[in-house]
Design brief:
The structure is a single chain. The protein has 383 residues and is of the alpha+beta class. Helices cover 50% and strands 14% of the residues. It has twelve helices and nine strands. The chain starts with a helix and ends with a helix. The structure holds flavin-adenine dinucleotide (FAD). The site of flavin-adenine dinucleotide has 20 residues, from β1, β3 and α12.
């Protein structure tokens, strides 16, 4: 749902200019330094990027899902690691508190997440629990007004820097499934919370992950999201539902950028006396990528609009994540092919994007997990 087309146009225009003039020229620097330059972080905060999907009452922009998808598509036109920093605040870092938090929890954390004063992270995955998230082993044992957390969380985006963590831990050891899990807000400076060294990743340099280790980490009972034990897995799944549409929109943006890079290169470079773009086999690659990016755009916007009307889009969000993550992988592969040898050389953006987009098929639910969710929901609907 688009509430005010004029305001949205202005916002998209601002973001598009920021992407073109500030982020794209700094993509190589981001990768080389493995860090978002500080001055760009400041500018991101000024534009309001840390609070895109956070309601206006908490100081965010309060975008609807359709508006957020359109913005995410613009942001996808540059290195995904830029988006990862503030995308986590808008998404998996803050949404748990926003969706299921108590009024006090929202008031304490969300306004500072919206401005970027606090950086957040989402701790679900563990060394022995990834796709099978409900089997997680981190424990939280009640001790007076506190819970004592023990366990290790793995691959946590923003882990090295985050000020506040949403942590899923098992409060009921007799329940080995989803019902035994509770979500906690854990502040980064809580004694007993330790950060492992930053992971060395294949791509998305500038976005950092690490282990988050809890060793007798005492967390106030008041920090249970929503105040009730046993609701944490549901909270985590609601958070991921919204995240899937956001990530899908980012995939569409990246695919559109790669189509543009491929087309420009194919027009400029000549072989056999004519531009590459005049060779029909190259045209086929360009056309396939254009078509797939358009299909992704259409389905994400459709699902986002439905979500805005209150429809349950759990299946459609998984359809979008499945298609768009795979689609951008194919588009990146063709982009390298259109560039020939240059596509394999780091000087060209497509080499970096090829590595960056590989992650989309893995995190926030792998492709196989999306397939399982879609099929399970289909069967459930019939029976
Ligand atoms: C850069 C990065 C950032 C991340 N950020 C976060 C974060 O911020 N917070 C967080 O909690 N997690 C994060 N993750 C973790 C991510 O969500 C998991 O890696 C992902 O869910 C897959 O889990 P896994 O790595 O344990 O793989 P596994 O679950 O071991 O899966 C391995 C393979 O088996 C397949 N598979 C597993 N089960 C089935 C099944 N039942 N049927 C068919 N196939 C199956 C998978 O699809 C996959 O192909 C991040 C990961 C990375 C790499």
């Amino acid at each position: 749902m688009i509430r005010d087309p004029e305001l949205l146009d202005q916002l998209i225009d601002t973001i598009s200019r920021f992407v073109r003039e500030r982020l794209i020229p700094n993509e190589a620097r981001l990768a080389d330094e493995d860090a978002v330059p500080t001055e760009l972080l400041v500018e991101m905060k000024e534009i309001g990027l840390f609070g895109l999907s956070i309601p206006e009452e908490f100081g965010g922009l309060g975008l609807t899902m359709e508006e957020e998808a359109l913005v995410a598509m613009e942001l996808g036109k540059t290195s995904p690691a830029f988006r990862s920093v503030f995308g986590t605040n808008n998404g998996i870092g803050a949404q748990g508190i926003l969706i299921d938090g108590t009024p006090e929890q929202k008031a304490r954390y969300v306004p500072r997440l919206a401005t970027g004063e606090l950086l957040s992270a989402f701790c679900l995955t563990e060394p022995d629990s990834g796709s099978d998230a409900a089997s997680l082993r981190t424990t939280a044992v009640r001790d007076g007004d506190h819970y004592v957390l023990n366990g290790t969380k793995r691959f946590i985006t923003n882990g090295p820097e985050a000020d506040v963590f949403t942590v899923m831990a098992r409060t009921d050891p007799s329940n080995k499934g989803a019902g035994g899990i509770t979500a906690f807000i854990v502040e980064g400076d809580t004694p007993g919370l330790k950060r492992g060294p930053a992971d060395k990743k294949m791509g998305q340099k500038g976005a950092h992950t690490c282990d988050i280790i809890f060793e007798d980490c005492r967390v106030p009972a008041a920090n249970i999201i929503g105040g009730r034990e046993g609701q944490g897995f549901k909270t985590a799944m609601k958070v991921l539902d919204r995240g899937r549409l956001h990530i899908s929109a980012v995939c569409v943006g990246v695919a559109e950028r790669l189509v543009e890079e491929s087309l420009n290169y194919a027009i400029e470079r000549k072989q056999f006396g004519v531009p590459l773009a005049e060779h029909q086999l190259v045209q086929a690659m360009l056309a396939d990528s254009k078509t797939e990016a358009y299909a992704g755009r259409s389905m994400v916007l459709d699902a986002a609009r439905r979500k805005d009307t209150g429809e349950n889009v759990s299946t459609l969000a998984s359809c979008c994540k499945l298609f768009c993550a795979e689609m951008v992988g194919r588009v990146a592969d063709r982009a390298v092919q259109v560039h020939g040898g240059a596509g394999y050389i780091a000087e060209y953006a497509v080499e970096r994007f090829y590595r960056d987009v590989r992650l989309f098929r893995i995190y926030e639910g792998t492709t196989q997990i999306q397939q399982l969710v879609i099929a399970r929901n289909m069967v459930r609907e019939v029976s």
